[in-house]
Protein 1
Amino acid sequence: MSSNDNDTVSLTSDLPPSLHKDVFRSKLSWEADIIAGIYLIITGFVSILGNGYVIYLPIKQKEKLKPAELMTVNLAICDFGMAVGGKPFLISSCFAHRWIFGWIGCRWHGWSGFFFGCGSLITITIVSLDRYLKICYLQYGIWLQRWHVFICLGFAWLYAAFWATIPLAGWGDYAPEPFGTSCTLNWWLAQASVDGQAFILSILFFCLVLPTAIILFSYVKIIAKVKSSAREVAHFDSRIRSKHLLEMKLTKVAMLICAGFLIAWIPYAVVSVWSAFGTPDAVPVKVSFIPTMFAKSAAMYNPIIYQLIDCRCGLAKLSGCFKSSYSKPSRQKSRLSDWRL
């Protein structure tokens, strides 16, 4: 047996039996792969165009971004990276009816998807905490500076890089999805050893459960605060009341973005856990395929939400919808302040 054969055996030994014969061959029909490829082209185009525009706005504006705008741009960078770093590989493989980039390409595809996806989730978590502090602790908005946000976003990138890279460093691995034309974390390691179980459980806790818990905590506290302070706000002067209403509108936007991300990724997480701790081949190929395609579209949701907000803002222009809490922005300058979180 050649060294290449040995490498292939070692790489596939932890995978379920259905993937042992040809791990990179598509388990779907040609028609399903073609439809998936077309779907991914559409979602990829919307993701790249929409998030690219959000990233381009501050370059065109040539002004320092406010803290909340920095978070918006960082989220767009994560979504843009997810689309550029993963979509071309997946689209090409769908039309080829198999994964065509080998194990190195598989690991890159898995790493980039996990890195930018985790970065997006941590950014959304930071946004949720920002909304929580701004609504529940009014003084927070006064002392928050740009450098505080840079530290938080730097942490988000380091956090994502750490968890995405440890599978390449020997703890865990990346492997093909059950349908064969995409790659992800090797969830089946949980069935191979205690070490594999520790890896999967760590990923689930630190990259899904903990951020999601923080997001839910933030918005539950916000809702409770709004209900308890409704009468109190009514006695504020008009300027403070207007600012409070603005912060509430922006909080609703942030909640939409959080909900969109979680709705896109939770079904995929459920199927992945099922694969990790169920019996081998417990997840049918079609069942694993649909949540994956749904999750791959997550990067396009935020630009659509921003555009819907912008349209609503245009309709409500006379009422001063989404005025900046710092100054009255000019529409000719940029619309980024309308989208800021």
Protein 2
Amino acid sequence: MTLNHKSSEAKTKSRSEKFQTANLARCIYTLAMVIIFYIFQQPWIVFVGSIHLVFSISWFLLIEYDILIEKELWWSGYVPATFDLIWLTVLAYGTGHITSFFILGYLGSIALSSMTLDRNYGKYNAFLATVLFSGMGFLVYYEILPLVNIMMPPVKPTLLSVIISSILLGGSAFMVNKIVSRLFYSLTDVNQKLLAIAMTDPLTGISNRRSFLSNLEIEIARQQRSHSPYPISFLLFDLDHFKTINDTYGHEIGDLVLIEFASVLKNSLRKQDFPSRWGGEEFLVMLPNTDIDGAIIVAEKIRTTFHSLAINIKDKQLQSSASVGISVLENQDDLPETIIQKADQCLYEAKRRGRNQVVSEKNLKQ
């Protein structure tokens, strides 16, 4: 499993928590506005607000209980944005003044369109805000809707003010969204690069211990949520006589051996498997949905492939080998640290038996 794939799950989780905070704020804000307009005896505004409140609470609960996973469905941002802008239009109408009317629409469309990396989403918000707010302006101008104001004496907009404000609302909201989106893309790109640096072993290019532990947490959570729990196997590799290689040929050749082994790992594993450099010459691999027999097959494949490689050193060819310890997490009550420790015990036994071999819980006592 690639680093980007795994780390994206953690980022999605963090992003989902932020959106849930925004959804909760939407519920509280809408409830407050409904109460205010109820006090000022504006029943149809209260009616629209109540519909929006029911929607907001339902949306919050759908995401909170994983019935709907926000950001995985293309329409999951458009639906709440549409409801929000309709509600903002009604709120702006309730203030009754053309200035506050369009300022509210402008700020609302920018706020909504700047919360996503989807550029089309930003265009949609700017367009919808312009249509809704200009439409409401024309309805007030032609006296189809009466002037309402709970803040100050109502002021009827002029036709020119409605047209100019509509153009300014759509154009400026679109331009601000474009600038914010570009800045957001740049910051996201920088954050992703920094995350990759922090979670990747610089020598071998595979994940480091921190990344492994973070993604192990995610995998165990997935296993526990599964209706049919599956085994997770761990392969702990240790390169044989690595200190001797460093002392004899130098650290440059030692680094080359580590890089070659990491390359064998990457080429031998499935997409969902997760290799990491555990420390020094040790490598730990996680194999989701793999039992002990499957793990032994994978470990033997990696061991034999690596042992068959020859590294050219001037007029010599260097062959190296690796010992492997295997353990399996099957019981959800087991601690991952305990299972990894069992793999370490099997690795120690493989070393004791002469190195360049695979030892698992299955043959540990033989």
Protein 3
Amino acid sequence: MSTSYGASKEILQCITTEVIPRRELFVKDSNVSMLKSSRLSQKFLVSSGVCTKFHCRSRKTTIVLSMPSSSRDEKAEDEADRLTYKDAGVDIDAGSDLVRRIAKMAPGIGGFGGLYPLAGDSYLVAGTDGVGTKLKLAFETGIHETIGIDLVAMSVNDIVTSGAKPLFFLDYFATSHLDVDLAEKVIKGIVDGCQQSDCTLLGGETAEMPDFYAHGEYDISGFAVGIVKKDSVIDGKNITVGDILLGLPSSGVHSNGFSLVRRVLNRSGLSLKDQLPGGLVTLGEALMVPTVIYVKQVLDLVSKGGIKGIAHITGGGFTDNIPRVFPRGLGAAIYKDSWVVPPVFNWIQEAGRIDDAEMRRTFNMGIGMVLVVDKEAATRILEDGQGTNSMYCIGEVVSGEGVSYHY
């Protein structure tokens, strides 16, 4: 078949068939009868929040068009206009390569937290992190009271993925000239974060290093240590095909991806004082919302059993973090539109013209923690959680490595 299309007179039509895997869906709200989406028409039958099974097949038609050179040039310009995390100065692949090299020198690393065996029946679990260039926005907005919560969250959320209860936290605060009032605000946030995670601020280091940082700026890092019984460690080894992925909502960007966020902000022409498009707060307020500390919620769920693996969604997003808890040969099928994506991510993607794949590998997209559970536990957790903490069924474990997305 031929027809005219722009400067070209060739058209190749091909028909492909796409089979969407069977999905085991858990829905928290028993009143929901259909998940509305412009591209999703299947009805979700719900009865008291339990699992409803259905099979789904769809056929889609793909039209492959030959493209004139002018269109190819426009496409190349369009691709060049799209921002990536690497464009903003962060190379995730290089970071992963460094971890692999370190693992050769120190075998056993690579988890969210490091386990150290104690004499007896327990492991110490340790983690360390910072808050990245979110600090730059703290300097610009003057919001220093909550950056310490972010600092604690990044470490305690990592170690709780092993099922460990945080015991204590240590901080490091460095600046060129010590502003006592500013430092006090930061430390107060750290204290708040420790209270939220039920651990002790055991100590820290304050380093004053003239000429090392710009005036009024500082850097912070943190270190958390927890404990877990050896027979209670959550390590993902028992994860199997068909297990359910439950997502705990994030408060926003949390503390990853801010190099790209800042590049998007510069491109957008907006200021941190402008209102977030589609939101009710300013951009500064939306971006500086502190990271959720999941410790108490997760440990409560762990105590009830059925949790096989936990992934903290930080740098690397869904793409790199969820597979870290899987045995070899297993992957994740994520249900698109199965949770509410905060408006800040829509703005970031639109203003930065960022591809879906890049968004999913850079940001948490509204899910800060993913629990891998068996079907029975998923039913119980979702039913028990009605009316309290929000939670979403976001996918399931499938055969084949990697993360795929399905409607």
Protein 4
Amino acid sequence: MHKIKNIFQHINAESKIKKEPLYPWSLEKRYKISKNVLGTGSFGVVKECTDKCTGIKYALKIINKKAIRGKEQMLNSELDVLKKVNHPHIVKLHDLIETKKAVYIITDLASGGELFNHLIKKGSYTEKDASNLVKQILEGVAYLHDHEIVHRDLKPENLLFSDKSDHSNLMITDFGLSKILKKHNDILMTACGTPGYVAPEVLRQTGHGKPVDMWSIGVIMYTLLCGYTPFGGEDQAALFDSILSGVYYFEEEYWSEISDYAKDLIDKMMTYDADKRITVHDALKHPWFHMANNINLLNNVRTNFPARATLKKAINVVQGVTRLRKTSTRQVNINNDKKSDINYADISNLDLQITSMSRNDNFIGSLKSFISPFPKISEGTTDPIVIEEDWYSNKNAILV
């Protein structure tokens, strides 16, 4: 009996030695980690944690190093930006812990949830309310642009409310695709973004910079006012074709009571020529923010913006939310200089990196290579490709 007891003691001792703690001691020493999962992604999970000293709740993003192997640039980009920024409309980094197996990023909690999920629960939502939201987004982006940061993946999923109150603060998050410019006039060549919100110059590979964020905000503003996005298609190729055409409509059924000031700002933010597109600081001076009306938009937004829970892929979100409007009485004027010899019928071979690091599944799309060579994705590959670096050029240089 004594020998049997010793055997069990030996087994128990071995099991205790082999068992690894769920979290590093340096993390658990300061924070109480909740079992509440806020979100999951291809690279890890986001949980809620509480500072043991202050009682303040934070978001804990746990990045598995094995899962992100080969895509470390996305993590580095996000951390580079988070370490540099401090603004009320941008999610803030509070702590960072790294082990051999994982990276633990502690940021603002943003418990109010994603932009549209918050809006559709409201009792009232007016054009004036929408103008306040757009202004907050622009103020956050103005701070980024002033610090030479291009977000490159602005979309409703990356806009979170700080809490669930009616007047909650809106914050920009997810900087996995962001780029800190080395020089003010740097041109970025890596094709990245999310279907439906990506600017045409990104798809055309003619080089892009800060104006891509303004285009994305224009798409977000359009969606905030009617519940559907301005560009759509039956599949990804048709969606990109729609964006490349630059044509969108203000359908009478949903836009008749929305102010002309709102439509004017959308037109300026989605000007096809990036060089002529309104800047973030000029957008903040637009009269819409003082002239927006109090028409209730909630019914239209609820009708046109379906629940996001069943739409996992970004492309499915676009397909489920949008319809290309063809019966409008007001068509946007398109610049003549956007016309080219692009073959819109065949857009199947250019590999476009369209990934998102936190809440949404990663996704890769494809287009025809119109101008410059681009890294190819091996046939049958399903994992996202992360381009290690952007190619830089002065505006006067020839892009290759």
